[in-house]
Amino acid sequence: MTMTINGQTALYGIIGNPVTHSLSPAMHNAAFADLGENSVYLPFPVLELEAGILGLKALGVKGVSVTIPYKEAVIPLLDAIDDLALQIGAVNTIEIKDVDGRKHLCGSNTDWLGANRALAEKVGLRGARVVLLGAGGSARAIGFGLRQQGAHVVLCSRTESRGRGLAADLGCLWHPLAEADRLRGDVLINATSVGMQPEIEISPVPAAIFSRFQVVMDIVYAPLATRLLREAEAAGCRVINGLEMLLYQGVAQFELWTGKPAPVELMRQKLYQATGNMPGMKCGLKKGKR
Length: 290
What we know:
Elements: E1 10-16, H1 24-34, E2 39-45, H2 49-59, E3 63-66, E4 80-81, H3 83-88, E5 93-99, E6 102-108, H4 111-120, E7 129-133, H5 137-148, E8 152-157, H6 160-170, E9 173-176, E10 187-190, E11 215-218, H7 227-234, E12 238-240, H8 242-258, H9 264-274
Helix pairs in contact: 1-8, 1-9, 4-5, 4-8, 8-9
């Protein structure tokens, strides 16, 4: 795969602060090259959002991913936003189109698509009983995506006010995170940052809980094999690591921008390589017994 950058190269990227650590350029640039697209995807560190958006328009950028801390703040600066992103209250994808001689910014959210597609490889979501840990932006996107697919969600979080607020929006029950070990279901999802480097030996729930679930997913991908996933796998659960959600939200972005099927396996390979892992090995996480 080779890429020639010239005056006709289309610009895409990711905006946020910080973004130099982002894995998205690895998978998107590999996909562009594989499909013969004269396009490049770059990290754009943005210190002031409104000025950054004006810069994207002025430079003719075609589309961007949006990451922390701008997923909510960018909404008032957009010309259009799709219905589910509006319900979620966050945008992670922008298409920049030419409409009647002006740049038109269209916002959407592919985080929920990434979670749903990763989960769908292990379990059917319609009618599934899902315990979702967390009440932040990721939990919100995942929760609305699960509801969209007909799953039954129970939310657990540390902060009661935020948790009850999200549960009300999702139309589901809320429990304190400390009571999560009393619950059971088909799927358990960690949408908190617990277990992320450097505190890699912390899990949001006790290991005894995993006997009550079939599938366990963690959105954390640094480390890839979190304590949560290691203990879940040891209990016989099918496990999904955080790179899979990152992959599939990126696949949805790529297909939205190009209108072409994304080279999923290539994008997966590049993501795992960027973290020093190989897709087939998945950092020692095995398939599981169930």
